[in-house]
UniProtKB/TrEMBL annotation:
<dbReference type="GO" id="GO:0043597">
    <property type="term" value="C:cytoplasmic replication fork"/>
</dbReference>
<dbReference type="GO" id="GO:0003917">
    <property type="term" value="F:DNA topoisomerase type I (single strand cut, ATP-independent) activity"/>
</dbReference>
<dbReference type="GO" id="GO:0003677">
    <property type="term" value="F:DNA binding"/>
</dbReference>
<dbReference type="InterPro" id="IPR013825">
    <property type="entry name" value="Topo_IA_cen_sub2"/>
</dbReference>
<keyword id="KW-0413">Isomerase</keyword>
<dbReference type="InterPro" id="IPR013497">
    <property type="entry name" value="Topo_IA_cen"/>
</dbReference>
<dbReference type="InterPro" id="IPR013824">
    <property type="entry name" value="Topo_IA_cen_sub1"/>
</dbReference>
<dbReference type="GO" id="GO:0006310">
    <property type="term" value="P:DNA recombination"/>
</dbReference>
<dbReference type="InterPro" id="IPR003601">
    <property type="entry name" value="Topo_IA_2"/>
</dbReference>
<feature type="domain" description="Topo IA-type catalytic">
    <location>
        <begin position="87"/>
        <end position="213"/>
    </location>
</feature>
<feature type="domain" description="Toprim">
    <location>
        <begin position="1"/>
        <end position="70"/>
    </location>
</feature>
<dbReference type="GO" id="GO:0006265">
    <property type="term" value="P:DNA topological change"/>
</dbReference>
<dbReference type="Pfam" id="PF01751">
    <property type="entry name" value="Toprim"/>
</dbReference>
<dbReference type="InterPro" id="IPR023405">
    <property type="entry name" value="Topo_IA_core_domain"/>
</dbReference>
<dbReference type="InterPro" id="IPR000380">
    <property type="entry name" value="Topo_IA"/>
</dbReference>
<dbReference type="InterPro" id="IPR006171">
    <property type="entry name" value="TOPRIM_dom"/>
</dbReference>
<protein>
    <recommendedName>
        <fullName>Omega-protein</fullName>
    </recommendedName>
</protein>
Amino acid sequence: MFLRISLNLRFDSSKTKQFNTVKKLLNRKDVEYVINATDNDREGELIAFLIFLLAKNKKPVKRILVNEWTPEDITRGIKNLKDEDEMRNLQAAGYTRLITDWLIGINFTSVATLKYGNGKLLNIGRVILPTVKLVYDRDMEILNFVPKTYYEIEGHFKAEAGEYKGKYVKGKESKFDTLEDANKIIASITSETGKILDKKVTMSKEYAPKLLV
């Protein structure tokens, strides 16, 4: 049985003065519509949505979308305001996150702590739970790993431009289960003349290895 089953929204009492100021401005008769200028993401959209909800705003809401707060970007954003309906999906995503954290995070954490915590807080959440499960699954793969011997063929080739090494690949497979199978391939191509059928050159970045933790 969950300890909490309803979500009651209210603002921090220390922010009462600021909230009342916003509410008063929203209700001004000379204000035709409101521009939402919170962060351009799910959480920014949610913050504005909750403020308008608690303030019981009845005015139309427009959305300004900017990448940076420069005069040029702000001017461009004001000239291209979005209707609130265009932001409904982002609002729904933020509100869903809020409800999910409430239902899973608060309820499950309370129940799990009381039943299994042994006096310690046992955190359960929509992010921590699947993340810990991924770590657990990986640990189980390592513990249950059974090493298997396989063989690969690496050839050394000579050409007019110089020498190079290459790995034998058939289709997408390059590994042999037995040394005998690998030796059969080696015997069939040793001292043979080859022909380059295809050449691909790609640019790639090689990053430094991650620091040890």
